[in-house]
């Protein structure tokens, strides 16, 4: 084996156990702060069956094809309530060659950005090679810049946490809701001049918004009309999977010491299922020797539906709330799993926490929801990320 393949970069997995009805539960905070998501997986396990949803948000420049996948056992259609949630997801837009300063223009800043629920992410920019831009729903504009661009712009920032011996990358954070950046102030004019005149950066962007009003829609449509853009909505496909082993989980055993599967092995199994890797370690398999971790149960067949898109944290939270209600009626399934993957090349992971790529760019979280409203929360990052909140 190559020495490079034997090296395993540092990773971090944080596990929490709580109850959705607990007033101190932080599930809503974790969902809302994970701003840029390209992949969500949902699994509902039955005694001998499994229902799985995998949602992947549009990230055409990712190594893997982004998709939302829905896996349903012994069934040909989605449950009506979950189908309704998926079909209510917001559209997203791919805007070509947009100047960054447009995000700061007063006609765009005041009626849309400062209202919240709007997200923008530079498209086809690699966080370890290119300049990457992100606008959070909180109004924070994050610019992850190489040294030359940073020095030419002349904006105040800090060295990236993931530089080597010399600082070759810098991060500029602009809180567009701060009074000092109100249109007309000296600081606002200086920042606008840097992005408009000194170094007019232009990139393709992904836009999405959640349940904005008519005024906000009008503002966005006015901006879009000035540039070449594409509006995208989810696209579906499906096929059937059969004879799948599945790990066993119990609410009281999050560490997997006795009754449940170990959390690392559980997340590994989720990845194998999402990639359509066999978990049976068949003797005639030359591609994979992976086996589903113990304890496990059997799955007879499942329907896998695939959907592509770029979906906001608000949409993910609505889906999570709907999944909690899945147990309102008696079900055989003991648990549901919801996994959300962040963009590999996003400048941030949770909130404004800086995100780097290194060898994989992983940043994800997973909910395992149980019948009694208990849940497990797994938060995983790669080598170039801070500890999840």
TrEMBL record:
<dbReference type="GO" id="GO:0000171">
    <property type="term" value="F:ribonuclease MRP activity"/>
</dbReference>
<protein>
    <submittedName>
        <fullName>Ribonuclease P protein subunit p40-like</fullName>
    </submittedName>
</protein>
<dbReference type="GO" id="GO:0001682">
    <property type="term" value="P:tRNA 5'-leader removal"/>
</dbReference>
<dbReference type="GO" id="GO:0000447">
    <property type="term" value="P:endonucleolytic cleavage in ITS1 to separate SSU-rRNA from 5.8S rRNA and LSU-rRNA from tricistronic rRNA transcript (SSU-rRNA, 5.8S rRNA, LSU-rRNA)"/>
</dbReference>
<dbReference type="GO" id="GO:0000172">
    <property type="term" value="C:ribonuclease MRP complex"/>
</dbReference>
<dbReference type="InterPro" id="IPR013893">
    <property type="entry name" value="RNase_P_Rpp40"/>
</dbReference>
<dbReference type="GO" id="GO:0004526">
    <property type="term" value="F:ribonuclease P activity"/>
</dbReference>
<dbReference type="Pfam" id="PF08584">
    <property type="entry name" value="Ribonuc_P_40"/>
</dbReference>
<dbReference type="GO" id="GO:0030681">
    <property type="term" value="C:multimeric ribonuclease P complex"/>
</dbReference>
């Amino acid at each position: 084996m190559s020495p490079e393949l034997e090296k395993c970069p540092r990773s971090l997995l944080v596990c929490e156990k709580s109850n959705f009805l607990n007033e101190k539960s932080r599930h809503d905070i974790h969902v809302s702060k994970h701003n840029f998501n390209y992949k969500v997986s949902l699994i509902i396990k039955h005694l001998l069956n499994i229902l799985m949803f995998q949602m992947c948000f549009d990230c055409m420049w990712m190594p893997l094809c982004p998709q939302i996948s829905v896996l349903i056992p012994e069934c040909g259609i989605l449950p009506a309530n979950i189908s309704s949630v998926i079909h209510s997801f917001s559209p997203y837009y791919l805007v070509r060659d947009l100047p960054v300063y447009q995000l700061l223009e007063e006609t765009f800043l005041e009626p849309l950005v400062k209202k919240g629920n709007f997200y923008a992410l530079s498209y086809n920019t690699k966080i370890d090679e290119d300049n990457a831009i992100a606008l959070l729903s909180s109004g924070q504009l994050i610019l992850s810049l190489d040294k030359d661009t940073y020095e030419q712009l002349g904006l105040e920032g800090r060295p990236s946490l993931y530089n080597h011996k010399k600082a070759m990358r810098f991060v500029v954070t602009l809180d567009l809701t701060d009074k000092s950046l109100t249109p007309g102030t000296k600081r606002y004019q200086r920042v606008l001049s840097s992005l408009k005149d000194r170094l007019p950066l232009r990139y393709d962007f992904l836009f999405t918004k959640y349940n904005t009003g008519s005024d906000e829609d009008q503002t966005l449509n006015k901006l879009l009309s000035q540039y070449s853009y594409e509006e995208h909505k989810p696209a579906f496909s499906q096929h059937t999977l059969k004879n799948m082993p599945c790990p066993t989980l119990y609410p009281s055993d999050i560490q997997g010491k006795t009754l449940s599967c170990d959390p690392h092995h559980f997340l590994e199994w989720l990845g194998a299922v999402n990639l359509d890797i066999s978990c049976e370690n068949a003797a005639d398999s030359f591609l994979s020797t992976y086996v589903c971790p113990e304890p496990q149960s059997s799955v007879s067949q499942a329907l896998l539906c695939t959907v592509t898109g770029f979906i906001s944290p608000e949409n993910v939270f609505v889906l999570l709330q709907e999944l909690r209600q899945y147990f309102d009626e008696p079900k055989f399934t003991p648990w549901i799993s919801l996994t959300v993957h962040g963009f590999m090349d996003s400048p941030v992971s949770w909130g404004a926490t800086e995100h780097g790529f290194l060898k994989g760019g992983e940043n994800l979280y997973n909910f395992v929801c149980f019948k009694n409203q208990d849940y497990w929360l797994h938060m995983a990052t790669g080598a170039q990320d801070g500890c999840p909140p």
